[in-house]
Amino acid sequence: PLGVFPVCSPPGERLLTLTVINPWWNESASNGLMLLRQTPTSEVINSPGFGASPFWLDDENFGYISQFQNGVQQVMVTNTNLDRPQMVFSNEALRLGFPNEERPDSLTLQLVRPSPSDPRLFVILASDFAVEDTASYLLFFNRVSDIITRIVPLPDLFTEPGVRLSPDGRFLLIADGDTEKSSSVMLLFNPGVPQIRAIHLEGQTPYPRHFYASWSPDGAWLALPELGYIRLWHNGADEQLLNFDNLHCTNAVWNNRMEP
Fold this sequence. Notes:
The protein is mainly β. 2% of the residues lie in helices and 46% in strands. It contains one helix and 19 strands. Strands 1-2-3-4-5-6-7 form a seven-stranded antiparallel sheet. The chain has a four-stranded antiparallel sheet with strand order 8-9-10-11, with no helix packed on it. It has a four-stranded antiparallel sheet with strand order 12-13-14-15, with no helix packed on it. A hairpin with an 8-residue loop joins strand 14 and strand 15. The protein starts with 6 loop residues before the first strand and ends in an 18-residue tail after the last strand. The model has no long low-confidence stretch (mean pLDDT 81).
């Protein structure tokens, strides 16, 4: 099955998919065979190999997490010509970048994405599984200066997190991959504000809800299908419900930005 949603390059011309053995909702921790297509509907032209959490930097360059059985993880970047991948950082180097008093005993990378608001920054979801109560972090890493610019401890809410980053980089939706759970949490962060706000999205839909989350192109609105109607949040608040007569809505996709 697919390990993540197919990942389109920024102009939408190229496509990366990930083939995995694990359940499809376990996307942030899945390691599988990456397949590259020059157009979304073309045949597979080649494979960059095995990796996890694939992402595009631009239309020519992409990256992924390379994982080894000894626990070593490396964030690699290459291009559509599949030139020799270059390592940006490893999980151990990232762990050592923590201040001494905050440094975790171990660090497992679960998701890496370039920041939509600053291409120099990577937004990273990582956890320390060496402690009894798993400690999770949202990290901002500057790949130009090679330093962590911000560390945000996360509440211990998830076992198999699924993640959606808003197009403007201000919001992070995290939903648990456990199909027995129905609640989600939207994390609201702003690079200029030290606090992070967690917004619980309670619902009765028993599936990994991040797969059905849809951000408006400007990142201001989030749409989630729920029991046949659409739940809308504007900037993480002002919840609204859209109901359609005689239409049981199961998914939602944005066509254009929505005025508040």
